[in-house]
Amino acid sequence: MSADADTLPRVTAATADVTPPRPFLREHWPWLAAILIAVVMPWFFFNWSTGRHSGFVLTMLSEIGLMTIFALSFNMQMGHTGLLSFGHAILFGLGGYCTAHALNAIKDGGLWLPTELVPLVGGVGGLFFGILFGYLATKQRATAFAMITMGMGELVAAAALMFMGFFGGEGGVSTNRVTGVSLLGASYSSSWQVYYLIVVWVVICVVLMRLQTMTPLGRMANACRDNFERAQFVGYDPRMVRFYQFMLSGFFAGIAGGLYAILYEIVTFDTVAAPKSATALLATYIGGAGGFFGPILGTILVVLLQSGVSLLSNAWLLYVGVLFIIMVMFAPGGIVGLIGAHAPIARIGRLRELAVPYIRVLIPGLFTMLGVVALVELASFTTIGASQGKKLAVGGLAVDTATALPWIVAAAALLLGGFWLRREAAAFRRRWDALMDEAKAQGAAV
Amino acid sequence: MSDVAISLKSVRKSFGATEIIRGVDLDIPKGQRHAIIGPNGAGKTTLFNLISGRFPVTSGTIALNGTPISGLAPHEINRRGLSRSFQITSIFPRMTVFENIRCGLLWARGYRYSFWHLLGRQKSLNEQSERLLERLNLGARRNLPAGLLSYAEQRALEVGITIAGGADVVLLDEPTAGMSHSETDYAVSLIRSVTEGKTLLMVEHDMSVIFGLADVITVLVYGEVIASDVPSRIRANKAVQEAYLGTEAA
Ligand SMILES: Nc1ncnc2c1ncn2[C@@H]1O[C@H](COP(=O)(O)OP(=O)(O)OP(=O)(O)O)[C@@H](O)[C@H]1O
Ligand SMILES: [Mg+2]
């Protein structure tokens, strides 16, 4: 599990840092496009007749933003340093608690800090706890490290319910982001202001974390991940590399936690708990830990599932789990790895030949998926749904989960789709392998 | 300051009950090119592991430039100017060839754990890495993940990472093993030029490499030094011929 060192060698870092400089726009347009999309996105959901933003969409986008920082900070440890942490949320949550207390202090007049800079309190908190916990955890690597972080996660989660003063017990710490102190004169009473504040912080953090991969520490983190013993013999103490990397990762996780406190105006025990840590792990793994972009894609997907699908289905967590298992089994490089695998074929200009094979697996794939979803939903509606008094409806048509027909249809879709998918998948693989061989023969494989 | 680069005093090493290094005394003066030869399993690599701090000694002392280094961690020994290569290639397979070399340079150039220097902007560092890459004949491979290099190229990179930092004492463990004749010739001339004025301790099986490079040869058999002398006299040494060269030549 430790950073899949046994898979094929992969270059994880941009080699761009030493090739001749390209024009800023040509090199960075995907980033600029992403920022642009982030800025205009809320306006697609703007209700022009009432003149109001969609609160749901803004909250979801804000969540994507802060979770992006969180997942990337997690990947500073996992993807870049080969450290699998099961307790990363403690850095996030503790940063959040610090921020909530700071906001309350600002409100009381005991502290002066503009709201725009309040996330820094979370960052400093995360840094502090990163130093504290990192000092202990980074003495070990690999499995021992994972176990220690898991223990720390449990420890903090337990402490959160015990130490009322700092954690506020079960109820958590409530706060109010409208402190009246702002550099820009914004009140942050409406959620679009908060969203844009988060966007700015996401941009800052993403840029900083990206640049960090191009520093001596960032490179040596990769080196220690790949071969910690060799790193020692070029003068580096792998333990210190892990420690600094953990510490910095805590800083960014803390900023994410700070933004969380500002967004929700309450920080509770679940910000430090294991499911939060798992979310970072899921997002990173689904998106791809090998590259820098992976966790961003993974976060978008996971939060959409979390916020979007959870409205439609009680079983959303199950879908995330299934997706995770599928990714681990069939695409250990995550979405980014999947996309990257096409590069050799793209280089010989024959990507188009995959279109038909793709469509041919997608159709049975869709069938199989519908079968799975239908079964899951039927099951969840007979159990949880029934107790909530909900009724299953497909396209406005009520479905009676007590009759056999829907179950039979769903099972048939799953079985037939699965059978069909297997055949098409084999054909797809043959086509893929042939194209790959062709690419190798033309020397485009690397 | 003493003029002995590496000094071993009755060094012993046991793995469990078996004693692999059985009391080695050895002084290697500064600036000397020193070869260690011996049959397979004699303990040559183990001796390197002891000197470079990879394993602790069971007893005895090792000094580098007059100061004891037994008990220090490998990175601390490296920072005192001793660098080593590995018999079993040990590189950073997922990083590019260029970055492998640059990693070898970072600490020596004083970058430490910096997270505020952008490597792309470190002109002199990058140029130095580039120059070394050219000398290693790996210039054309610079952007390839090191794990995809051919075996001989990985060997060259292994040596490159070791010498990149400009350590004063260089330990090379079978640097030319697995290389073709021309590759070996090139590697020997490269090693000779980069270790100019430095202390070199190398393990080799290729006799032409040893007799071409070494000022002094030490013969290690079953964890004991049976001879340590200039090449011509080692060649003539009866005990050495029996224990090692004879079997090799037969
Ligand atoms: N970590 C270890 N644990 C146990 N035994 C070891 C260890 N390292 C080496 N040995 C043993 O020590 C002996 C000497 O090994 P070493 O690698 O030093 O030999 P060598 O002289 O380098 O041989 P070669 O010419 O094959 O490289 C061998 O018998 C080996 O099995
Ligand atoms: Mg050996």
TrEMBL record, chain A:
Domain of life: Bacteria
This protein's record includes keyword Cell membrane: yes
Keywords of the record: Cell membrane, Membrane, Transmembrane, Transmembrane helix
Transmembrane segments: 29-48, 55-74, 86-105, 117-138, 144-167, 194-211, 243-267, 279-304, 316-340, 361-384, 404-421
InterPro entries, sorted: ABC_transp_permease, LivM-like
Keyword Amino-acid biosynthesis: no
Membrane-topology annotation of the record: Multi-pass membrane protein
Pfam families the record matches: BPD_transp_2
Major subcellular location class: membrane
Compartmental location: Cell membrane
PANTHER family for the chain: ABC TRANSPORTER ATP-BINDING PROTEIN, HIGH-AFFINITY BRANCHED-CHAIN AMINO ACID TRANSPORT SYSTEM PERMEASE
The protein, known as: Branched-chain amino acid ABC transporter permease
Originating species: Vineibacter terrae
UniProtKB/TrEMBL annotation, chain B:
CDD domains: ABC_Mj1267_LivG_branched
Keyword presence, Nucleotide-binding: yes
The ABC transporter domain, residue ranges: 6-247
InterPro entries the record matches: AAA+_ATPase (IPR003593), ABC_AA/LPS_Transport (IPR051120), ABC_transporter-like_ATP-bd (IPR003439), BCA_ABC_TP_C (IPR032823), P-loop_NTPase (IPR027417)
Single GO MF descriptor: ATP binding
Nucleotide-binding as UniProt keyword: yes
Cellular component, GO annotation: plasma membrane
Keywords noted in UniProt: ATP-binding, Nucleotide-binding, Transport
PANTHER family registered for this protein in UniProt: ABC TRANSPORTER ATP-BINDING PROTEIN (PTHR45772:SF3), CONSERVED COMPONENT OF ABC TRANSPORTER FOR NATURAL AMINO ACIDS-RELATED (PTHR45772)
The protein's name: ABC transporter ATP-binding protein
